[in-house]
Give the backbone structure.
Amino acid sequence: MDKLRVALLFGGRSSEHSISCATAGGVLGALDRDRFEVIPVGITRDGAFVLESDDPGRFALDPAHLPEVVDNGTRVRWPESAASRELRVAGADGSGERSLGDVDVVFPILHGRFGEDGTVQGLLELVGLPYVGNGVLASAIGMDKHATKTVLEGAGIAVAPWVTLTHQALEADPELWDRRVRALGLPAFVKPARAGSSVGVTKVSDWSELDAALEVAFAEDRTVLVEQAVVGRELEVAVLEGRPGEGVRVSVAGEIVVSGRDFYDFEAKYLDAPGVELVCPADLGDGELFELQRVARRAFEALGGEGLARVDVFLTDEGYVVNEVNTMPGFTPISMFPTCWLNSGLAYPELVAELIEVGRLRGAR
């Protein structure tokens, strides 16, 4: 059987550049080289497409030195039209271009803006390359917390109350927006509208902390959400698009138990900071799990999801409240998305292979 040629796309211009690189390390290590030929394409922090090293160890997540894509002078060229699937690369030494061969599918493991938000998906659509994961619309909606909440609320899915702010709105009528924000009550969370991995997120327990929290969030995005804190168990489930003729699959649940931190922040997610325990599978009754999987499936479908997602929810006394729908969730081998699938009977290498196959089949339709 001929090997599938997979272009693995990672790095990027967002503040989650290093997390994307760490995800790439996990995927590079998991890909079965008897089945797949890999072309690692890194995106530098400035947005240059470079041919990267096929070395999983180079992108290990080390708290002392976060991995990154460094500009090595090469330049990967995408096809000029949908009539070709050939990738080419220009050498760093000025020796001209050479072919990297035809690509069967692109695996964009990009987190944050300029990658997870539909921009790269649009590029791949323009040149006609099949790819893993969500399309342009679902990626754009899922990246924007305000848009996600609006769509979910319209679909009858419970979300936490929120207020969306911009600098223009605040300057036009600061008293109005101050009243609307304070009506949410305390504690509250301040978040950039378009960022992930808890980057730029602050928990506000006193209104004197609000201005500083807004400044942190506005440093990441020009639109910011202030969100009412939800009291409940913090749960996550993983979603996979089925192959043609199959339905959407939802994993068992994982639970985030926070004991020594304000919330599940960047350091706890990726740098092994103490005060958080990840439990999978979560201790849920059959009925609770069934309902959670139903809500996650509805949320995925409401956004027009394809490929994969991680749906984050709170289990409250009134039922499930959806927090976020992550269209390209953390994908290191110890991240919650693959952990949920591992506990559902799908190991990491098989999960990666399944995502590639679903993306390839969708591109063939």
Summary: The chain has three domains: 4-131, 141-158+231-364, 162-228. Residues 286-302 form the longest helix (17 residues).
